[in-house]
Design goal:
412 residues, alpha/beta, Arc Repressor Mutant, subunit A, Rossmann fold, 7-stranded mixed beta sheet, 16 helices
């Protein structure tokens, strides 16, 4: 069933409008108070389209460079996956199914702006996009045709719509806002509540893939979902953007319905992805040591997982303290995160801090009783420069100031 195209203004998909939106230098204030450049388009529509187009530049470059596309309200763009993370999910499915993905049917139950659905279709799958907002569904239907993506759009609730289709994979990104539009992250607080539908979905599909908030506790999620075979902790430019859970009925049909999932730690940067993986059940061990010549700080995805045995097994280094997420070694390492050469280290005292007063440093605190803002204000330390001050506590409870510089210096 095609969405009702009466829900969108046909002028928005014209060539003239497409050329205008790509070339105009008008501000939102110009559109709000100045003369309108088109007839039959309201101020609200003009502002919505220009705002959506400009927001898509970094997050959705395929949409931004394409012609005759229509944009939804900005919240739909803010909440959708980026192209980087959507393509990662599509490649994840290709890894599971290989060339047979072309024979698979995927249902996106919470379709939104359709970014995930688009990349899954580009990977070869047949995709059903469910979206209860009829206007948004119509926009996605129009855009998919412009993008030549084989996505079938259904303007209905995916929870009910899925019952009329045979699918191999069910994907969803539950809404993470409550009735008061406050952000939530626990599975039972999101809509739909996946915990209430999971058994049914696992009987319908070979795999259920769920995107959840990066704030969801991994141990809690594993305990509640029980059938996860993989968990992907995905960060972009050192910020965790989403957790992706792959669940299968093969696990659900075992007596305990429990899994030992593989954890994939992913950091995307400059259009490439560094991926580490290990079993969640890997024995966690604490190996502490002194502060040596080099300091290492894991990227955000590793800090989210917080299980460092896989790194300690692979790299000759030691943790500085049990809660600091900092490591040290006597030699440089190929480390998944930031690397620093230690120039000097000091036991923390107010007397020692006087030498940093009124100077410029990048300041980081890890397991330290003072916040960055407090340290800057107390000793009037200016932000920036090439040197980094780390304030931390070691495994013996000693507080340290570690003066460092980036290694190698060209590293971002």
């Amino acid at each position: 069933m095609d969405p009702d195209t009466n829900h969108i203004n046909p002028v928005l998909s014209s060539e003239d409008f497409s050329r205008w939106i790509k070339s105009t230098r008008a501000t939102m204030k110009d559109l709000a108070f100045g003369p309108l450049p088109f007839e039959n388009i309201s101020r609200h529509e003009l502002i919505e389209q220009l705002e959506g187009f400009r927001k898509s530049k970094e997050k959705l470059p395929t949409w931004h460079k394409s012609h005759n596309l229509i944009y939804p309200p900005k919240i739909s763009i803010e909440q959708c996956s980026s192209e980087q993370t959507a393509e990662y999910k599509a490649n994840l499915l290709k890894r599971h199914y290989g060339s047979s993905l072309e024979n698979k049917t995927i249902a996106d139950l919470t379709g939104g702006f359709g970014v995930d659905a688009y990349f899954m279709a580009c990977a070869g799958a047949k995709v059903h996009h469910f979206e209860i907002n009829k206007r948004l569904s119509a926009i996605v239907n129009h855009n998919m045709k412009q993008l030549n993506a084989k996505v079938q759009c259904h303007p209905q609730d995916g929870i009910h719509g899925i019952n009329h289709h045979q699918v191999d994979v069910i994907y969803l990104d539950p809404a993470r806002r409550d009735l008061q539009q406050k952000k939530v992250f626990r599975l039972e607080d999101c809509q739909p509540n996946v915990l209430g539908h999971l058994d049914s979905w696992l009987n319908q599909a070979e795999m259920v893939m769920i995107k959840t908030s990066p704030m969801l506790d991994l141990s809690l999620g594993i305990d509640q979902l029980k059938t996860a075979i993989e968990i992907h902790v995905v960060a972009v430019d050192n910020e965790v953007k989403e957790l992706i859970w792959c669940l299968t009925k093969k696990i659900a049909n075992t007596p305990q319905g429990l899994s030992d999932p593989e954890i994939y730690v992913v950091n995307m940067k400059n259009n490439s992805a560094k991926i580490d993986h290990f079993p969640w059940a890997l024995t966690e061990r604490q190996v502490f040591g002194p502060i040596e010549n080099y300091l290492f700080e894991p990227h955000a995805a590793w800090r989210k997982v917080g299980r460092y045995s896989a790194l300690l097994d692979r790299l000759s280094m030691r943790r500085i303290g049990p809660n600091a997420h900092l490591f040290s070694a006597d030699q440089p390492l190929d480390f998944p995160g930031r690397s620093f050469r230690i120039m000097e280290k000091f036991k923390f005292t107010k007397g020692v801090m006087k030498q940093f007063k009124n100077k410029q440093f990048n300041v980081t605190t890890r397991d330290f009783p003072m916040r960055v803002a407090e340290i800057r204000n107390m000793w009037r330390i200016k932000e920036g420069g090439d040197q980094y001050l780390f304030f931390t506590t070691d495994h013996e409870g000693q507080k340290w100031i570690i003066l460092t510089e980036k290694y190698p210096k060209i590293q971002n």
